[in-house]
Amino acid sequence: MKIANYLQQKYSVNTYVDRNLNLIKGKGVYLYDDNGKKYLDLMSNYGVSIFGYNNQKINSALTAQLHKISTLHASFTSDTRARAVEKLIKRCGEKYEQVYLSNSGAEAIETALKFAVLKTGKKKFIVCENGYHGKTLGALSATSGEKYKQPFMPLLWNFVSIPFNNIDALRREIDKDTAAFIVEPIQGEGGIYVPDEYYLYKVKEVCQTKGILLIIDEIQTGLGRTGKFLASEGVAGDILCLGKGLAGGIPVGATIISEEIASAIPKHIHSSTFGGNPLACAGIISTLRLLDKARLVHISAISKYMLQQLRMIESKVVLEVRGKGLMIGLVVNKDQRNIILKKLQEENVLVIPAGENVIRFLPPYILTKKDSDFAIKKLIKVLKGID
Ligand SMILES: Cc1ncc(COP(=O)(O)O)c(C=O)c1O
Fold first, then answer.
1. Which residue's CA is the closest to the ligand 1 atom numbered 10?
2. What is the number of other CB atoms lying within 10 angstroms of the CB of residue 211?
3. What is the rounded radius of gyration, in angstroms, for the C-alpha atoms of the chain?
4. Do 71 and 138 sit in the same domain of this protein?
5. pLDDT at position 305 over 80
6. Long-range contacts of 53-59 (CB under 8 A, 24+ apart)
7. Mutate to test the pocket of ligand 1, among 189, 225, 250 (most ligand atoms within 8 A of CB)
8. Confidence class of residue 1 from pLDDT cuts 50, 70 and 90?
9. Domain of 165?
10. Of all protein residues, whose CA lies closest to atom 3 belonging to ligand 1?
11. Taking CA atoms, which of 11, 105, 287, 313 is between 20 and 30 Å from 253?
12. How many domains does the chain have?
């Protein structure tokens, strides 16, 4: 472990924190380090490993594809890609008719921005305070947070930030130059902020009335995370972005659009060597198969249980518990957040941060009550130790 940690730190560009943990394999909801120590995973690699680790169905689908053909440029037809895009479009709702596949969430956002400009001819975007859309230059322009952006100013085009969950601010900010409003149904990285129940419906109404596009970023909230296939179910955006766990752990981004937008996109204007590679597409087919009604019902049920248990914790350190589905934030004193993360790791429970003072739970969808009980027991122990 020491050598691996040393080498990684020495030879990788260290833009990440060092959790000082060498994880070498996974099975179900558990990860194992190089000493054989077992960890309960409540973060699913920032929302990617939605069916846990070593899922046999996903593994078989990926392995079979690997043995056939793993990469095939999108100018050629791939039967796997054809089935994946058809399946994905059929799950996303009527308004979404075509998908552009890429390799990460940030790339899905980059694509969305370019498509919005192509459709509208405009370059003003309204975004939300605390919003997160990735860190490539275009996505970063839409992301909130001076610490990420300051060294790279000036960033792209005209991005104007308004408070999340505020319809009046959106209405006020839209003008004749506005191309689109970009929003997460629940803010993830920013700190698990859940808006009012009808916020997205109202957003849609305002965008439609004022004639701007609505870009819904479901890279974190999508694919069952909130107990629905899409957190925005019932509200069709003009552009929808997915990523994270869509391809069974293989890198992927998806920008899903209406026919109206598709008609504004000329050939050659956007492409990616790896985008829509058959390996990722096999992962998409497998993931969509596993993400059935029963799984969504399980997510809602286990979420209800976990939220209930978390809300029963009595501790001066815990300020609030918020979230939806298996996207849960435990708000704590800012100074103690990272101490709690570290101590939970020492107690074999892996969670991740969000915002300034939030402990974020993004567990795999196979989490059971027993797993949740174990995590809560460990959390109570850690909180008692620092209360
Ligand atoms: C809502 C949202 N959008 C975009 C991204 C960027 O995705 P990626 O890290 O794959 O580029 C993330 C990543 O956490 C995200 O949560």
1. 105
2. 10
3. 21
4. yes
5. yes
6. 53/25, 53/26, 53/27, 53/28, 54/25, 54/26, 54/27, 54/28, 55/248, 55/290, 57/286, 57/289, 57/290, 58/248, 58/249, 58/283, 58/286, 58/287, 58/290
7. 189
8. low
9. 57-290
10. 133
11. 11
12. 2
Q: What is the pLDDT of residue 231?
A: 98
Whether the per-residue pLDDT at 112 is higher than 80: the answer is yes
pLDDT band at 386 (very low <50, low <70, confident <90, very high): confident
Last residue of a domain, one of 237, 258, 290: 290
Which residue's CA is minimally distant from atom 8 of ligand 1? 105
Task: Report the CATH number at residue 156.
Answer: 3.40.640.10
Q: What is the pLDDT of residues 205-236, one digit of tens each?
A: 999 999 999 999 999 999 999 999 999 999 99
Paired tokens of 246:
């869509």
Mutate to test the pocket of ligand 1, among 128, 220, 230, 232 (most ligand atoms within 8 A of CB): 220
Same domain, 91 and 216: yes
Mean pLDDT taken over the chain: 97
